[in-house]
Amino acid sequence: MTPIAPVDADTRRAVKPVICYPTETLPKPNMTLYEAARSDLKKVADVVVPARDAAYIRVPKGHFLRIVSIEGPQVGDLNLFSNEDLAERFYSGKTRALHGTHVTTGDQLWSCFPFMRPMATIVADTLGWYGIDEFGGSVHDVIGTRCDPYTGRLLKGHDYHHCCHSNLIRSMSDACGLSVIEAEVLVHDVLNVFMCTGFTRDTGQYFMKASPVRPGDYLEMFAEIDLLAVLSACPGGDCSSEHSSDHAQCHPLLMEVYKPLDGALEGWSSPPMNPYDRTHGR
User: Fold this and answer.
1) How far apart are CA 164 and CA 156, in angstroms?
2) What is the CA radius of gyration of the chain?
3) pLDDT, tens digit, for every residue of 250-279?
């Protein structure tokens, strides 16, 4: 049965939206300090993320993590954990609520409850020029989840083991000495690095399109706490047509860790856990 619009339907649709979480009082990162610290960095670690696979790297607080396109257009699915407590992990939904569907320089990546503090601050984005295109698409999204074998099984009827969910599980297993069953419950919704996505205007469906990323492009973030970063080089390549398959052309990605000069972060301190008292009204 097709619902009948009320006589005041146009009036209801014309109600102006209200931002759910105004961020005027949100503590702002000291971007001037971070930019000054970036002027003289020393690379202290790196790892190549193979195509259609994942890799991990540990990033001490006060260091910078740079994710780099090195061979061809490629998107990556990023999980972040506190290196001190794996229960604290990236919260894409709250990051989206505070900063929007896509993130760029100046935005922060927030951890889950009950910690809820900035894990990392984005300090450089060579794709920051892209903005929002005519389709509503933009880059570095926190709206998608990650390609996974369960959805693939539902839609295609067969198993595929090199989707981002499974890639992240294997890498977490290696990083922390966990079984794949133990690692799976820790893997969470991602930051889709370099991925160009949005929602269709007519049906509201999540879409992807060819990423504008090219070799040499990078996304760089400052580690506000000690981090374990796990990155999958998506089997969709640049996500111009499909993912979770062996058909797309795929490329590796690079994760690099940089240390600033001693004293370059004078006045900075790692953010404490959220101060809410956790009594929940009891």
Assistant:
1) 16
2) 20
3) 999 999 999 999 999 999 999 999 999 999
